[in-house]
Design a protein that fits this description.
This protein has 316 residues and is of the alpha/beta class. It has 10 helices and 8 strands. The chain is elongated and about 95 Å long. Magnesium ion (MG) binds next to loops.
Length: 316
């Protein structure tokens, strides 16, 4: 088949995915073999402790379109994706999960949409969340509402993950964002350009286990909120202001009451409630401050986002 000149990089981060890498590679190659574009498939081995790397090596030995970037340890999906994006040579790239939750069969439609609309980014938007609990759906929904409400300078589309196509200029823009705290959904939105959505059904994982627990999801939400807005700091000052005004009015009321009705020794319960309430607000505000200071600390160290142990090149 004659190939057009454009090269498309497919970027797939893998962490302990021995159960799915072969299935994933087959699904991807089945689709791209029938297409007229040139492809490279970049697998990032994010410090897997199982046989993922050995399996990827076998795939690489057979298929010269395959690149493996083997990171020196597990850096997390965000860093792994960044390693892939940094090393993508394509005129466009497509980000996929190894577990086939982002169906590779959609690759032709995504590319077609990219060509038809002339957009810089074509991002996947889930219609339905199969195989997820109502609690996860509920919290995810709440999270998008909160973050879009308080993060004024970015508009993060709902039900959107990392599954997307990006053209060269949006890749070049994203590559310049080197912050350590990488809330990718936010970064993808922050770069701007023309972005269009395509709807798809997100499938359940084909095999293996998800690496996301609720604690990680909570941290993820904090990352998004503290990384993209200083509104929580303002809420803390606002609470301080409201409480000060309320206590001033309450003080005035007590003076008034004492002058006209004398002193009585009641109010111990309300006093302790107030002390507890205020200590809570203070600890919360210090915690919020801490979130930002922790981020400053993380960024100030200026460490690289990942280290590559070995690269297995393609013939592209
Ligand atoms: N992943 C990774 N590094 C990590 C965790 C996950 O590269 O530290 C990869 C994983 O191999 C998969 C993708 O990120 O290809 C999504 O992970 P997972 O399916 O566990 O997350 P979920 O789909 O449940 O959000
Ligand atoms: Mg998954």
């Amino acid at each position: 088949m004659t190939k057009t000149k454009e090269l498309i990089s497919i970027v797939i981060p893998c962490y302990n995915e021995e159960e799915v890498v072969d299935i994933c590679n087959k699904a991807v190659t089945d689709v791209i073999d029938d297409m007229t574009y040139n492809f490279e498939i970049i697998y990032i081995n994010d410090g897997s402790t199982d046989a993922t790397l050995e399996l990827l090596e076998k795939i690489h030995a057979k298929d010269k379109r395959v690149v493996i970037i083997n990171l020196s340890r597990n850096f997390g999906k965000e860093a792994a994706m960044t390693a892939g994006i940094d090393n993508a040579k394509g005129d466009a790239l497509i980000l996929l999960d190894a577990d086939l939750q982002d169906p590779p069969s959609l690759i032709p439609d995504i590319i077609k949409m990219w060509k038809d609309t002339g957009a810089d980014v074509v991002y996947g938007q889930r219609i339905e969340r199969k195989g997820e609990t109502w609690f996860k759906k509920f919290t995810a929904n709440g999270f998008y509402n909160i973050i879009n409400f308080i993060a004024a300078n970015v508009d993060i589309p709902k039900n959107t993950g990392d599954f997307r196509l990006m053209n060269r200029r949006s890749i070049d823009a994203l590559v310049q964002l080197r912050e350590k705290h990488r809330f990718m959904k936010g970064l993808f939105a922050w770069i701007g350009f023309k972005q269009v959505a395509f709807e798809y059904n997100r499938e359940p994982r084909v095999a293996g286990e998800t690496k996301w627990g609720y604690w990680k999801l909570w941290n993820f939400a904090m990352e998004g909120i503290a990384g993209f807005s200083t509104t929580p700091l303002r809420i803390a000052s606002f609470c301080g202001l409201i409480i000060s005004i309320a206590s001033f009015l309450f003080g005035a009321f007590i003076i008034f009451k004492t002058i006209f009705f004398g002193i009585d020794i009641e109010g111990w319960a309300s006093l302790s409630v107030m002390i507890l309430f205020l200590s809570g607000i203070q600890l919360l505000s210090i915690g919020i401050l801490g979130e930002y200071i922790g981020r400053i600390f993380g960024e100030a160290k200026k460490r690289p986002l990942y280290f590559i142990e070995t690269t297995y090149k393609s013939d592209k």
